[in-house]
Amino acid sequence: MGGGFGGIRCALDIGKKLKGKILAGQIEITLIDKKGYHLFVPALYEVASAYGIKKDPFAVRLKKTICIPYSDIFSADKGVNFIQAEVFSIDLENKKVATRGGEILDYDYLVIALGGQAADFGIPGVKEYAFQFKSLEDGLALNQKLEQLTKEITSGVRQVPIKIAVVGAGFTGIELAAELACCIKKLFKSCNIKGKCERVILLEARPAILPMVSGAERNIILKRLTVLGIEVMENSVVEEVGSDCVKLKNGKRLETDLIIWSAGMRPIDLLEKYTALLLTEKKKIKVDTKLRAADLSGVFALGDSVEFIDPKTLKPVPALAYVAVDQGKVVAKNIINLIKGARMIDYSPFYSAWIAPVGGKYALAHIGGRLLFKGLLGWLAREIVDFRYMVSILSFKNAVFIMWQEINVFIKND
């Protein structure tokens, strides 16, 4: 269940390794997702800030850059059935999954990879006034809001600068704030608006942004954000969000034209319905070293749905795209081994590599050990990583097409 990075990898790997049994009708693989496409989330920030695109009512060109139809991924030779439906309930005792459309599916092995949703931490006003940043619809809505603000300024209804607050200075918040700064400059230049165009504020509740990176790497990112004119406010805990302001616990009140919430994720509410699923304090599924759901036979979980404690650090493994892919590979291997009567393998987490785009053709890439690329080289490293992923799930031709669309559309911000 779930067509994110881990779910897709798991389904494809099982289909590839057990192709003979699938052709013989002995095994059937089904992936369920409520969308008809796989969303390439790492490029969502670029959709939100896309500039210079000829608009159409359905945003077709923007969608093509990050929406990959499941029909392209699970072609006829892949051995995977796809059902577009929303999961309504799971009968863990009788091994059945019900969709909201009324379809009942039996299973021998179940993989829960349902992703997550934005966490508002109970802060007043977040749901009502802040733009969320998780889905394609969120990205498109944010893009339209930027256009609306630009029109209001050119018509004299609103004054410059545009004041934008991005709450949450993780990788997503940093990527988004940097790209928005680039986008707004381009928008205003095309409209012949002079002077200071924007005030982008990046709010972080912790003492420092990106606590998982080194001090030297953090300074590189902070310097780049400063060059782009972004104000980084650390130790800034949001107390309340209003229609035109953000109130902080230290008493400050920030006037805003646009508030974007990227301050964290939490598991989907569906998981809490099932007492048979053992959940952590963060409402994530408890799993063992094989990524099996605790105390359940034939049930595995991965990605944002689980909390896996790294035995080396005794801390939860971060929710990164390539981490979910690795987990999908392990779950696939373990299901295959169970079918063949072989011993399952343990999941050994790796998450020390990361790439942070920071506006335009600039990124900081930490790839294994002490290997560090910044600027254009970092951006190229990111493009290579993205292309490798596309090739892993698509034909070479389709992967090239997707990457060309992405570069051609988003390069206008640079």
- The assigned structural class equals alpha/beta
Just name the CATH architecture of the domain at 5-34 and 85-118 and 266-350. Answer: 3-Layer(bba) Sandwich
Number of helices: 12
Helix content: 25-40%
- In CATH, the homologous superfamily of the domain at 5-34 and 85-118 and 266-350 goes by the name FAD/NAD(P)-binding domain
What's the number of extended β-strand segments?
24
Give the overall silhouette. Answer: globular
Low-pLDDT runs = none
Commentary on this structure:
- The chain has 414 residues and is α/β, with parallel strands linked by helices.
- Among the domains are: 5-34 and 85-118 and 266-350, FAD/NAD(P)-binding domain (3-Layer(bba) Sandwich); 126-264, FAD/NAD(P)-binding domain.
- 35% of the residues lie in helices and 21% in strands.
- The chain is built from 12 helices and 24 strands.
- The protein has helices at residues 5-17, 19-23, 44-48, 60-66, 70-73, 126-129, 136-154, 171-190, 215-227, 321-340, 376-393, 396-410; strands spanning 29-33, 37-39, 67-69, 80-84, 87-91, 96-99, 104-106, 110-112, 116-118, 131-132, 162-167, 198-203, 230-233, 238-241, 245-248, 253-255, 258-261, 265-267, 285-286, 299-301, 306-307, 354-357, 363-366, 372-375.
- Strands 10-17-11-12-13 form a 5-stranded parallel sheet. A 3-stranded antiparallel sheet has the order 5-6-7, with no helix packed on it.
- Strand 6 (96-99) and strand 7 form a beta hairpin.
- Helix 1 packs parallel to helix 10 (321-340) and helix 11 runs antiparallel to helix 12.
- The chain is globular.
- The two termini are 38 Å apart.
- The model has no long low-confidence stretch (mean pLDDT 89).
